[in-house]
Amino acid sequence: MELLNHLAARLCEERQYRLVVVDSIMALFRTDYSGRGELAERQQKLNQMMAKLMRIAEEFNVAVFITNQMTADPGAGMTFVADPKKPIGGHVLAHASTTRLYLRKGRGEQRVVKIYDSPDVPESEAVYEISEGGINDCKD
User: Fold this and answer.
1) Which of 34, 76, 99, 105 could form an SS bridge with 84, CB 3.0 to 4.6 Å?
2) For residues 83 and 34, is the Cβ–Cβ distance under 8 A?
3) CB 138 within 8 Å of CB 110
4) pLDDT digits 0-9 by tens, 75-125
5) How far apart are CA 92 and CA 70, in angstroms?
6) DSSP for 19-87, written as a single string
7) Residue among 126, 127, 56, 135 at smallest CA distance from 96
8) Cβ-count burial of 93 within 10 angstroms (0-12 exposed, 13-18 middle, 19+ buried)?
9) Residue 40 in contact with residue 47, Cβ under 8 Å?
10) What is the DSSP string of 75-129?
11) CA-CA-CA-CA dihedral for 55, 57, 58, 60, to nearest 10
12) Smallest Cα–Cα separation from 117: which of 79, 91, 81, 82?
């Protein structure tokens, strides 16, 4: 949280940033909180962090992009889901996010991005490649 306070102060001073990236948000919490006994406290801290990020986004007009980890969902195998993985972080992370994207490896060097959850964009997928020239749309 101290780092977010520093970020807010920096954004206030400079006003030139338009994107804040938080890489692997749950990794920050998994090291400090382990096991179900600390789950409630971890989720409270996560909720506080997400609320702070939302305030920063609104106050300084910046986009906040968060990456997260996936985990195997043993119960999904019983429902015949094609990809039995789910994002960690629970409902706190899901409800605090506006649009969620699911990135996965495709064939060869291709990657697939799926709009997983969005209030105003329908669920869809796009295939792309990352090259030396940047991100390229893949034409089938």
Assistant:
1) 76
2) no
3) yes
4) 656 666 566 677 777 888 888 888 989 888 998 889 999 998 899 999 999
5) 15
6) EEEESSTTHHHHTT--SGGGHHHHHHHHHHHHHHHHHHHHHHT-EEEE---EEE-GGGGGGT-SS-EEE
7) 56
8) buried
9) no
10) GGGGGT-SS-EEESSHHHHHHH-SSEEEEEE-STTEEEEEEEE-SSS---EEEEE
11) 110
12) 91
Are 99 and 114 a contacting pair, CB within 8 Å?
no
Q: How far apart are CA 64 and CA 19, in angstroms?
A: 6
Chain CA centroid to CA 112, Å: 16
CB 117 within 8 A of CB 109: no
User: How high is the mean pLDDT of the chain?
Assistant: 84
Question: Token pair of 125, please?
Answer: 């997928």
Structure tokens at 124: 């869809």
Give the HSE-up count for residue 35: Cα atoms under 13 Å, Cβ half-sphere. 2
